[in-house]
UniProtKB/TrEMBL annotation:
Keyword Cell cycle: no
Keywords (A to Z) from UniProt: Membrane, Transmembrane, Transmembrane helix
Key word Nucleotide-binding present: no
Pfam families: DUF3667 (PF12412)
Domain of life: Bacteria
Protein name per Swiss-Prot or TrEMBL: DUF3667 domain-containing protein
Length: 320
């Protein structure tokens, strides 16, 4: 919508003289135009802004999905106005994903309690309890079973009483074992989605730290390209936005069991292919170098994700 002609000779906001009637006040930046607008002008201005935003969003999603690496290269070349800002795009897509995940986690599927204990140096892992009557604990040299009635009484146990119970089950009376048992009791008496929601809240925060780490790995891999770290961070933001978009599709498709597994496999493959093509387009290196750096990036970032999810899961148990 075109701007109305400058109106005031004195800014109504800060009282700065405007003898030349500029379009904007040089002191406070307020637009120098008639502040009382008709309903028609108000609707016209809103529609103009809305269509401009819609066109920018459509262009952003079109190029993000259909032209891997193109937006990253365009942004780093200074062509930025045509697209939704990367941080705003990421915040919108990630918020939509976590909202959808939270909604889908409130269904009525049977609750499953994760639990396994450390014994004779065994590491803590995850198994699932199908039958709420008991929980079988796979321990070295012996299988111990916690009955639901025992778990129900543990809430009032002291550490000494719990240590005695663990010893009777051939499990080491360690802090981690006590923690896992007490959390298992909470999980038995809580809604399944409450723990899942807690986990995803932590993961949503962790992603803000994972993207800079992803950008750091890119910076190491392309340190001879004379690119700033900020440019690698833009790549990380756009790529993770794409991943969240595909995960939104994945979450919706999981509601259709007949094709869910096939679509999940295709989405996983699509993410890998997209990353490879985006690296090629954004950094403009030969295929040999791009493929080599692609596999190195998968290895180091895959380890980063494993550590992040493990820490997030443990923190969820501590907080839950």
């Amino acid at each position: 919508m075109p701007l109305a002609p400058p109106t005031y000779e004195v800014c109504p906001n800060c009282a700065t003289p405007l003898p030349d009637r500029p379009n904007y006040c040089p002191t406070c930046g307020q637009q120098n135009r008639e502040l009382r607008v008709s309903f028609r002008d108000l609707i016209g201005e809103y529609l103009g802004s809305a269509f401009n935003v819609d066109a920018k969003a459509a262009r952003t999603f079109r190029d993000l999905l259909g032209r891997p690496g193109h937006m990253i290269r365009a942004f780093n070349e200074g062509k930025r106005v045509r697209y939704v800002p990367p941080v705003r795009l990421y915040l919108f897509v990630s918020a939509l994903f976590f909202l959808l995940t939270a909604l889908l986690s409130t269904d009525d599927r049977p609750r499953r309690t994760p639990i396994r204990f450390q014994s004779d140096g065994d590491s803590i892992g995850i198994t699932t309890m199908q039958d709420l009557d008991s929980v079988e604990l796979p321990l070295r040299g012996n299988d111990a079973v916690f009955l639901q009635s025992e778990l129900a009484q543990i809430a009032g146990y002291s550490n000494e009483q719990l240590d005695s119970l663990l010893s009777a089950k051939s499990a080491e009376p360690t802090f981690l074992n006590r923690l896992m048992v007490r959390r298992a009791v909470r999980l038995l008496h809580a809604e399944q989605h409450s723990f899942v929601d807690q986990f995803f809240q932590i993961i949503s925060v962790a992603m803000f730290f994972l993207m800079p780490i992803f950008a750091f790995w890119l910076w190491l891999l392309y340190r001879r390209s004379s690119r700033y770290y900020f440019e690698h961070l833009i790549f990380a933001i756009y790529f993770h936005s794409l991943v969240f978009l595909l995960m939104i599709v994945q979450a919706g498709v999981e509601l259709i069991p007949a094709i869910g597994e096939l679509i999940n496999a295709l989405i996983g493959l699509l993410i890998l292919v997209y990353l490879l093509l985006a690296l090629k387009q954004a950094y403009q290196q030969g295929w040999g170098r791009t493929v080599a750096k692609f596999f190195l990036l998968l290895m180091v970032y895959g380890l980063t994700l494993l550590v992040s999810f493990a820490v997030s899961g443990f923190m969820s148990l501590l907080i839950f």
